[in-house]
């Protein structure tokens, strides 16, 4: 754990970030990986803030997500090319990352950042507190953050008929590069479940659902057979090397948020409902 | 432009300012759109509170040849109200995103105004006569005692004080899941398009219960979404052609004759990235915030965060001209990202048709910046000017003083350093009179009108 994780007030955080970003702009001695990390953290913060809004701004979310993906891709390429850490303390692929479990957790800054406030002008001392203050985030946290935001935007009930998922394997649906979407958090699983059952109109007001004990409702469902019935292509094997360290999914072995998102139900035939009911009831 | 202009250089003078004086800005008063009508006689503004205010230009007074007519309030009405979508538990903002005027066909004026979800067609009409002399009613409306009615008379119209009425004639609703960012009236004057983040719909002005979806860029899986629509406009002459811009800095030109759903563009305009200017924020600042055709339709102009680009429709691989609006901000992008200013959507506009030369190609472009500065670029002379919309130092018929921002190094007298710029004072909306050199510039809650100095 970095420092004494303090839950800081948003205004303090904003001040710190303002200091950091002006340091970014004015300082030439901030190393490139540091700058990159700073931008990445700002992206995550923004997405986190947007997630709390009832209706996040789609335009901004997409721009921020793209920025994050670019940085992520860059970092991934660097880590595959140079396994040795170039920057001590900032190792993108190091498993000793402090992962942000999900965007539900507020950012925790170490106490070291308070030094930075008084040292804004002194470039050298700026660097060290910046290093301390930057949250190191793992690939998958970023991916799940991005996906989570974009999926949230999709919950908005869409009047137009949903485009049908290409059913068979000829046309492999495109997955974004960051697919190793492992759901560390049950909440993410439930989002996936919500999308799956979107046509049942459960998902039309997720805020309402969050208050319910959804865990209880969906916990026992084994959706593996359900997945194959919809000809969902098998999970794209995650390319992220850090996957091996992830704990295996408990509840939804074959249902992660990306495949769940892909299952946009085009038709809700009674026969399908019957079939699902059979599974639920346990034949 | 700069200094004493000879020839055709315009010298801008303050003319009027509308809006509250105090610094405390009421949220509802924030101006969100500005638009002249086709004759320039009317100037409409929309605000965050859902209101539309229309100003009318006074008829030019022959004796007062030193200034053009002033704009005075003509009509004010509440166009959109805040709504609550109960299904999604979402509030729908009443802020007016765009106003577009229809060309005038009869005595009344028509305009389209839109918020995030609903477009409305408003009729603005004048009433300066009223019928008098009813048989059954008195002048004040009371019914006459029937026994006193002994003769029959025909009511006649008598003059009354001018009354301007605005009434909603059509409401085009429920066609957009995402937020509407543009509306554009077709050159056939019968149809128009509305664009949101992911879709563009085609409407007929007479039909409100149906619209055709002509562009849909929503991916099957929202997680694949990497690009949104930011603006759209019909070609001024070709009624089957329109363009839309994206958050990735591209413009697509589509022809509706090719297919019902214009998923494939006819042309794709995109400038390759300059590798020397690459940064983490390259994509964000490439997002196009506005696109406007020239009157001829031969050119179009786009605005991204730092520049204005002029495109020739015959050349897709790069713009023909690029003008830097505030290049000094390039080194401040991280701070501007942090405070969200990097997402500000600036509009741009062409000058009106030059009166002397009726069919000249438009040669001046205008756009806003921060610190209540706005910029103009003359395409012919390649000169540019920065002016400020401010109540200070603005006396009628005094030529506006050009402003200059000092990017770095020693600041000269009268220059402003980048760090002193007020990023809360942004000019996002500007409009140019279609026929004269009169411009309307909106600061946060004030509307400035400038005219050129008539000799």
TrEMBL record, chain A:
Annotated InterPro entries: E2F-SERTA_domain_protein (IPR052262), SERTA_dom (IPR009263)
CC terms in the record's Gene Ontology section: nucleus
Pfam families membership: SERTA (PF06031)
Domain SERTA positions: 32-79
Protein name (record): SRTD2 protein
Organism: Pitta sordida
Organism placement in taxonomy: Eukaryota, Metazoa, Chordata, Craniata, Vertebrata
Automatic annotation (TrEMBL), chain B:
InterPro entries per the UniProt record, alphabetical: PP2A_PR55, PP2A_PR55_CS, WD40/YVTN_repeat-like_dom_sf, WD40_repeat_dom_sf, WD40_rpt
Keywords, sorted A to Z: Repeat, WD repeat
Protein name: Serine/threonine-protein phosphatase 2A 55 kDa regulatory subunit B
Taxonomic superkingdom: Eukaryota
Gene: Ppp2r2a
Organism for this UniProt entry: Pitta sordida
Family statement: Belongs to the phosphatase 2A regulatory subunit B family.
Molecular function GO terms recorded: protein phosphatase regulator activity
Keyword Repeat recorded: yes
Keyword flag Cell division: no
Entry-linked SMART domains: WD40
GO cellular component: protein phosphatase type 2A complex
């Amino acid at each position: 754990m970095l420092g004494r994780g303090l839950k800081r007030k948003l205004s303090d955080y904003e001040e710190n970030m303002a200091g950091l970003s002006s340091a970014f702009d004015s300082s030439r001695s901030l190393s490139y990986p540091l700058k990159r990390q700073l931008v990445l953290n700002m992206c995550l913060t923004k997405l986190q803030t947007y997630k709390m809004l009832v209706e996040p701004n789609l335009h901004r979310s997409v721009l921020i997500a793209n920025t994050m993906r670019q940085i992520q891709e860059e970092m991934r390429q660097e880590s595959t090319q140079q396994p040795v850490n170039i920057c001590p303390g900032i190792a993108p692929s190091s498993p000793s990352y402090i992962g942000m479990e999900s965007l539900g957790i507020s950012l925790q800054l170490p106490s070291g950042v308070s030094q930075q406030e008084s040292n804004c002008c002194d470039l050298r001392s700026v660097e060290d507190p910046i290093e301390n203050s930057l949250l190191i985030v793992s690939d998958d946290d970023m991916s799940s953050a991005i996906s989570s935001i974009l999926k949230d935007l999709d919950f908005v009930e869409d009047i137009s008929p949903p485009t049908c998922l290409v059913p068979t394997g000829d046309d492999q649906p495109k997955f974004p590069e960051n697919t190793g979407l492992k759901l560390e958090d049950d909440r993410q699983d439930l989002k996936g479940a919500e999308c799956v059952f979107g046509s049942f109109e459960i998902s039309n007001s997720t805020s309402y659902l969050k208050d319910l004990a959804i865990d209880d409702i969906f916990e026992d469902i084994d959706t593996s057979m359900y997945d194959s019935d919809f000809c969902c292509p098998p999970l794209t094997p995650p390319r992220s090397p850090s996957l091996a360290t992830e704990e295996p999914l408990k509840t939804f072995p074959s249902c992660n948020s990306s495949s769940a998102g892909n299952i946009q139900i085009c038709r809700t035939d009674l026969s399908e409902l019957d079939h699902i009911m059979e599974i639920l009831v346990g034949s | 432009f700069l200094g004493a202009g000879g020839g055709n250089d315009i010298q801008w003078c303050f003319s009027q300012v509308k809006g509250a004086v105090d610094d405390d800005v009421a949220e509802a008063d924030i101006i969100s759109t500005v638009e002249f009508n086709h004759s320039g006689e009317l100037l409409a503004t929309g605000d965050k509170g859902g209101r539309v205010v229309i100003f009318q230009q006074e008829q030019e007074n022959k004796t007062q040849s030193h200034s053009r007519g002033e704009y005075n309030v003509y009509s004010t009405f509440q166009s959109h109200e805040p709504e609550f979508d109960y299904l999604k538990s979402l509030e729908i903002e009443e802020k007016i995103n765009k106003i577009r005027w229809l060309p005038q066909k009869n005595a009344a004026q028509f305009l389209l105004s839109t918020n995030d979800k609903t477009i409305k067609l408003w009729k603005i009409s004048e009433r300066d006569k009223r019928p008098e002399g009813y048989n059954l009613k008195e002048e004040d409306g009371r019914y006459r005692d029937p026994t006193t009615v002994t003769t029959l008379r025909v009511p006649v119209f008598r003059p009354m004080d001018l009354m301007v009425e605005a009434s909603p004639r059509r409401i085009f609703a429920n066609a957009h899941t995402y937020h509407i960012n543009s509306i554009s009236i077709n050159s056939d004057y019968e149809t128009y398009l509305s664009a949101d983040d992911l879709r563009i719909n085609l409407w007929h002005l007479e039909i409100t219960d149906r619209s055709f979806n002509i562009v849909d860029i929503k991916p099957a899986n929202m997680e694949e979404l990497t690009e949104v629509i930011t603006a759209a406009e019909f070609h001024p002459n070709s009624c089957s052609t329109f363009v839309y811009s994206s958050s990735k800095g591209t413009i697509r030109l589509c022809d509706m004759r090719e297919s019902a759903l214009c998923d494939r563009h006819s042309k794709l305009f995109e400038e390759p990235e300059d590798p020397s200017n690459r940064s983490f924020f390259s994509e964000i600042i490439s997002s196009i915030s506005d696109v406007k055709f020239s009157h001829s339709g031969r050119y179009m102009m786009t605005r991204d965060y730092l520049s204005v680009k002029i495109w020739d429709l015959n050349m897709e691989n790069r713009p023909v001209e690029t003008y830097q609006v505030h290049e000094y901000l390039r080194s401040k992008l991280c701070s501007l990202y942090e405070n969200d200013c990097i997402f500000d959507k600036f509009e741009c506009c062409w000058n009106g048709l030059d009166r002397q030369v009726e069919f000249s190609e438009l040669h001046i472009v205008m756009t806003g910046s921060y610190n209540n500065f706005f910029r103009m670029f003359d395409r012919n002379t390649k000169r540019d000017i920065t002016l400020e919309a401010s109540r200070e130092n603005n006396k009628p018929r005094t030529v506006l003083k050009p402003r200059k921002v000092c990017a770095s190094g020693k600041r000269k007298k009268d220059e402003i350093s980048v760090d002193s710029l007020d990023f809360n004072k942004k000019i996002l909306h500007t409009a140019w009179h279609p026929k004269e050199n009169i411009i309307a510039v909106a600061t946060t809650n004030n509307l400035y009108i400038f005219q050129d100095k008539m000799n």
